[in-house]
Amino acid sequence: MQIVLISGLSGSGKSVVLKALEDYGYFAVDNLPAMLLPQLVEYLRDAGHRRVAVAVDVRSGASIAALPERIADTRKLVDDLRLIFLNARDDTLIARFSETRRRHPLASDEISLAEAIHHERAALEAIAEMGHNFDTSDMAPNTLRAWVKDFVGADPTAGLTLMFQSFGFKLGIPLDADLVFDVRCLPNPHYDPVLRPLTGCDAPVAEFLSQIPDVGRMAEDIRRFVADWLPSFVRDNRSYLTVAIGCTGGQHRSVYLAERLAREFRGQVRVLVRHRSIEQRKGGA
């Protein structure tokens, strides 16, 4: 039986994830009180359900503090339990609440929206550390659905999954990054009119960058660092490790290096590649 727990900040996309999993065939339960998680899972297991998605967040009230203990209890009942924690920048969350005119569950006449978000982060801090973080700040709903599909499709017996994520610094560092490498010091294809509209996935850009010695040195330095420390993350029982590689716009240098490094590690661990800036444009965000 596979259980996917969904938690995170209000306005970060939990309803999108829950609906996506329901579309993938999961039995979906929203706003479950944290204390009831083991009982629900046991009931659904006995009823024959094999894939279940459950959203648990601050709407549970004070019982959310018990979620880590309830997760430990639930792991004894199932073969595969995964926790997705959705995160986003404060300015993004405030904008989303303003656009939808929804009320934050912790907001009141005495507490502003910004203060409510701050309180929610503090209440969920321990839970955030337990799960795989998805930063949805600049992510279109379709991109989030695709990421979730990859996440639940990963083989839990395969050990750690290594994700290389490219991004542009002009939109900020991804909140879900475990390791961050800045490659803005490398020559930028953006200044070549022919290469400017292309990306690091395109052959002309890859050919241009592959001929630059400093690009090769940077790739090897990152490869060696990740390879040296990867066993430590495995021993720490990590399911996912996200290596974020950033350039100015997230279109050329970081994309090329993410793809190059992914090829280096395939065959050693399960590897995923994501390009935040490119996927954002495709999703219309």
From TrEMBL:
GO terms for molecular function: ATP binding; GTP binding. Transmembrane segments: none annotated. ATP binds at G8, L9, S10, G11, S12, G13, K14, S15. Keywords: ATP-binding, GTP-binding, Nucleotide-binding. InterPro entries: P-loop_NTPase, RapZ-like, RapZ-like_N, RapZ_C. GTP binds at D57, V58, R59, S60. It comes from the Bacteria. Residues 161-278 form the RapZ C-terminal domain. It holds the Pfam family RapZ-like_N. Residues 1-153 form the RapZ-like N-terminal domain. PANTHER family: RNASE ADAPTER PROTEIN RAPZ (PTHR30448). This is RNase adapter RapZ.
